[in-house]
Write a structure and sequence with these properties.
This protein has twelve helices and two strands; from the N terminus they run H-H-H-H-H-H-E-E-H-H-H-H-H-H. The chain has 338 residues and is mainly alpha-helical. The termini are far apart. The relative contact order is 0.17.
């Protein structure tokens, strides 16, 4: 592993917190509908920040770590697009007003960063102590890839979320969003608003995505600093990306298939690394440059194929994909009675 100084960690975390603070302030002070122009500006800004960081990292610590960051960033960015599908489902399910979607996304990103920081620390510790964890992570990613491919035409059931069901059962909830507050007082009684339930749903979904994304990025780099930075910069741009592409998400009909291929590829890469270290050093490993090329190729092919498909068949609609079957969704698509 590279010798990343404490000062570098502090400055990087400070930069990320500063960018998050800007998002939170904008969302809290001036709730508004985010238009295409504003979303484009923010998206370009976050991408340029990530590129500048990657260039600096390569200059400061060598091209190898720079390549690992860009590979990790592309992996996390591609997985974050699947996050957007689920965010759209949550926003639609709970009828979140457009002026509050900015705030919901920003809080969702904060929750995701906290969860992923915990998983990064845990994952790095396990990998440092037990080399067989590479095998377990690899098998986990392959299992996830198979499940995602099998249920690529389904969406996760937001209403079936354990935390959402529990909140609805035990907490008093208002009928409207009460100006974007999380809690309010009605007739002297403290109640939560639907926005609180939305944040619970997004937080629990973030947890599930962290379980997949952290092993995935450890497949392209084993440096905790790069794992954290790749996740952070990918998530920082998620809020703007949501408003930029939410109208196009339905057209990415093969995205779940592409993500399943990426996860399977990285899973195989982790297993090969484990075999190289623990079984026989003659077992080949997949270089970072090859990983980056494969991931980008899959994303390009998936995007082009999706656009061609939806142009030929305008009724085709993309789905976020699910890790388990939902019989109700199967019946709905097949036109069978429930």
């Amino acid at each position: 592993m590279a010798e990343i100084s404490t000062l570098t960690w502090i400055v990087t975390i400070g930069l990320i917190l500063a960018l998050l603070a800007v998002d939170l302030i904008v969302a809290a002070v001036k709730p508004h509908r985010v238009g295409f122009r504003e979303a484009t500006i923010w998206s370009v800004f976050y991408i340029l920040v990530a590129v500048a960081f990657g260039v600096w990292l390569a200059w400061q610590y060598g091209s190898g770590l720079g390549a690992e960051f860009f590979a990790g960033y592309v992996v996390e960015k591609s997985l974050s697009v699947d996050n957007l599908f689920v965010f759209v489902i949550i926003m639609t399910t709970f009828a979140v007003p457009e002026e509050h979607q900015h705030k919901v996304l920003t809080f969702g990103i904060v929750l995701a960063l906290i969860m992923r920081a915990i998983f990064i620390a845990l994952g790095a510790t396990l990998l440092a102590l037990f080399s067989f964890m590479f095998l377990l992570f690899g098998l986990l990613l392959i299992y996830t890839a198979v499940q995602l491919f099998r249920h690529r035409d389904q969406d996760p059931e937001v209403d079936d979320n354990v935390m959402v069901r529990a909140a609805r059962r035990f907490l008093p909830i208002t009928d409207d969003y009460v100006g974007g507050k999380l809690t309010t007082r009605v007739d002297g009684r403290r109640m939560v608003t639907p926005l609180f339930i939305v944040l619970l749903a997004i937080g629990s979904i973030d947890l599930l995505f962290a379980l997949d994304s952290i092993p995935a990025v450890f497949g392209v780099t084993r440096e905790p600093y790069i794992v954290f930075a790749a996740n952070a910069f990918a998530l920082l741009g998620l809020r703007a990306l949501f408003f930029l592409v939410k109208g196009l998400l339905d057209r990415l009909v093969y995205l779940s298939t592409g993500l399943s291929l990426i996860l399977a590829f990285i899973g195989a890469k982790l297993i090969l690394h484990w075999a190289h270290v623990d079984i026989d050093d003659r077992v080949p490993e997949i270089p970072t440059s090859v990983s980056l090329g494969v991931i980008i190729t899959i994303l390009v092919v998936v995007t082009v194929a999706s656009l061609i498909k939806t142009r030929q068949d305008p009724t085709a609609k993309a789905h976020a994909g699910s890790l388990r079957a939902h019989p109700d969704q199967q019946r709905d698509r097949q036109g069978q009675p429930g």
